[in-house]
């Protein structure tokens, strides 16, 4: 037993990663901050921003609405889609698959900031009893194809407290 | 509804990052969680921290991890309360203020603590939380020194409330001190009495809080155990997983792999890099182009997910541009492969669950469904797949 434990320890020592967890002051969610990312909380709007300076990846997590009786996710997402297009956002795709086990929709699209094309994903999640959350993930368009799974996995670090 | 917020979100990202508050106050590290478990459960001290970290990574997204984090936040808040410096002299304005601020900041979020402490403290904490919110005035300290605080305290300890414990007639010196200040010289008797009574109650409360903190400190181990007791099942699961990780050889997917699909379609070279102990991301360079891939290490298994999202790679397989473009507009599609862990760490064989599309184009293209490849959705199309380290 002693030998096995020691062996495992030696093998493990090669990776050495350690996660920090952000706990929402409103006790609604937890976010596991991956190595290489920095998380900052904005008290004014209650949103969490996560940034990876090496890859220029930004993620923002915030609540857009409390649960509203009669409001359906599809209707809300349609509205957000229209608003995005009206504000000059080029929508490339819309995916209505569940995210983190919750009903969700994701828009993928392009915008530009300071002349740089930016690839942005908007994911709207409906969390029972808690309401609607929006995750915005953005990175320069030229590196999006390489970073798409880093974005996806960084988004998946979100856990809601039920 | 803050739909508008989403639109301007990207534009304000930079501002957000600059103006945001650092999260250290509300974050919890894996090291802190492990230290707590090891302190309370002596039998777990032989498990390497890295095995605990792997177990924690493998639990992400679960209720167990969320509960373990909340437990650790409670323990940390409890420790902060326990270590609050307690003044020896409550007559000192500065000591008193410092203490009041520390207690107010630390105790307010600790409602859960009421479940653990004895009833006398429960009623005390619930009844008197608001007392500290008052602004204390320097002159009251001087008035109180001369006052009959000791008799007030005696009466409060006997159970009289703050009103009946207060002797309105006996505070002539307090009156004298307060009235000697230009600011308060015109107060009515009842207003002066009210100030004195509040000040004495505040000091009484502060002394009680000090006692409470000293009691927590003296019984620290007992309280730690009570906090942790409610999370026994989650801790057991974590410890069990950590022991498994400590015993079995670690799966490390970092590096370059040769991927052989038995149907030949996705075969290629795969590179992976770990994000944490149980997640890796990378890509496969296949005949059709680059396929993004992520990998999850589960109990005794590795799950690889192939993300098909660009037109070029999807159309390579479909050879039907209109249909491929439609799939791109729906965010792409996914295939999954599951590998067994157990043999060589440099090669794994497994099962690939491919994706497919159901459509009708006899009268214009109508896509009926895009089916993601997964154990649940495409078991009938499963085929064998093999990866080996290059």
Protein model, in words:
The complex is a heterodimer of chains A (162) and B (390). With 162 residues, chain A is α+β, with helices and mostly antiparallel strands. Chain A has a single domain, classed as 3-Layer(aba) Sandwich (Protein Transport Mog1p, Chain A). Chain A is 25% helix and 43% strand. Chain A has three helices and ten strands. The longest helix of chain A is centred in the last third of the chain and has 15 residues. The N terminus of chain A is likely disordered. Chain B has 390 residues and is an alpha+beta fold. Chain B has two domains: 224 residues, no CATH class; 135 residues. Helix content of chain B is 45%, strand content 21%. Chain B contains 15 helices and twelve strands. In chain B, the strands form two sheets. Chain B has an eight-stranded antiparallel β-barrel with strand order 3-4-5-6-7-8-9-12. A two-stranded antiparallel ribbon of chain B has the order 10-11. In chain B, a hairpin with a 5-residue loop joins strand 10 and strand 11. Chain B is elongated, with a radius of gyration of 33 Å.
Write a brief structural summary.
The complex is a heterodimer of chains A (162) and B (390). Chain A is an alpha+beta fold and 162 residues long.
């Amino acid at each position: 037993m002693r030998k096995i434990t020691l062996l495992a320890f030696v093998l493990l020592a090669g990776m050495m990663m350690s996660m920090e967890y952000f706990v929402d002051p409103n006790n609604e969610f937890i976010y596991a901050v991956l190595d290489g990312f920095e998380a900052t909380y904005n008290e004014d709007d209650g949103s969490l921003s996560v940034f990876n300076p090496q890859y220029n990846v930004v993620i923002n997590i915030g609540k857009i609405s409390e649960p509203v009786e009669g409001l359906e996710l599809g209707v809300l997402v349609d509205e957000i889609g229209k608003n995005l297009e009206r504000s000059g956002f080029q929508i490339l795709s819309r995916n209505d698959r569940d995210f983190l086990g919750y009903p969700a929709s994701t828009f993928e699209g392009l915008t530009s900031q300071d002349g740089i094309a930016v690839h942005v994903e908007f994911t709207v999640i409906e969390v029972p009893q808690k309401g609607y959350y929006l995750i915005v993930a953005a990175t320069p368009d030229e590196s999006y194809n390489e970073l798409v799974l880093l974005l996806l996995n960084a988004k998946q670090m979100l856990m809601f407290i039920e | 509804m803050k739909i508008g917020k989403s639109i301007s979100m990207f534009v304000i990202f930079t501002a957000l990052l600059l103006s945001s508050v650092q999260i250290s106050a509300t974050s919890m590290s894996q090291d802190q969680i492990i230290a707590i478990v090891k302190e309370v459960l002596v039998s777990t001290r032989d498990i390497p921290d890295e095995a605990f970290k792997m177990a924690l990574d493998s639990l992400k997204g679960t209720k167990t991890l969320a509960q373990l984090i909340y437990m650790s936040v409670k323990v940390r808040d409890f420790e902060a309360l326990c270590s609050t410096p307690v003044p020896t002299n409550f007559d000192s304005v500065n000591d008193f203020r410092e203490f009041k601020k520390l207690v107010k900041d630390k105790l307010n979020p600790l409602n859960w603590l009421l479940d653990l402490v004895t009833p006398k403290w429960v009623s005390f904490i619930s009844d008197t939380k608001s007392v500290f919110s008052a602004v204390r005035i320097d002159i009251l300290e001087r008035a109180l020194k001369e006052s009959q605080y000791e008799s007030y305290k005696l009466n409060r300890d006997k159970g009289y409330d703050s009103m009946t414990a207060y002797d309105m007639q006996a505070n002539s010196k307090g009156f004298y001190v307060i009235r000697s200040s230009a600011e308060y010289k015109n107060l009515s008797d009842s207003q002066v009495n009210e100030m004195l009574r509040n000040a004495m109650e505040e000091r009484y409360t502060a002394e009680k809080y000090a006692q409470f903190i000293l009691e927590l400190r003296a019984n620290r181990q007992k309280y730690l155990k009570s906090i942790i007791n409610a999370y026994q099942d989650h801790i057991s699961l974590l410890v069990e997983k950590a022991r498994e990780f400590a015993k079995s050889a670690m799966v490390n997917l970092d590096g370059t792999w040769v991927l052989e699909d038995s149907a030949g379609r996705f075969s290629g070279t795969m590179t992976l890099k770990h994000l944490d102990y149980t997640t890796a991301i990378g890509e496969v360079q296949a005949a059709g182009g680059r396929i993004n891939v992520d990998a999850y290490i589960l109990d005794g298994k590795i799950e690889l997910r192939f993300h098909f999202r660009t037109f070029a790679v999807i159309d390579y397989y479909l050879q039907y541009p209109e249909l491929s473009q439609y799939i791109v507009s729906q965010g792409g599609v996914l295939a999954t492969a599951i590998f067994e862990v157990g043999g060589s760490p440099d090669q794994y064989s497994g099962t690939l669950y491919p994706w497919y599309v159901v459509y009708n184009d006899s009268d214009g293209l109508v896509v009926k469904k895009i089916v993601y490849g997964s154990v649940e959705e495409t078991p009938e199309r499963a085929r064998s797949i093999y990866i080996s380290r290059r």
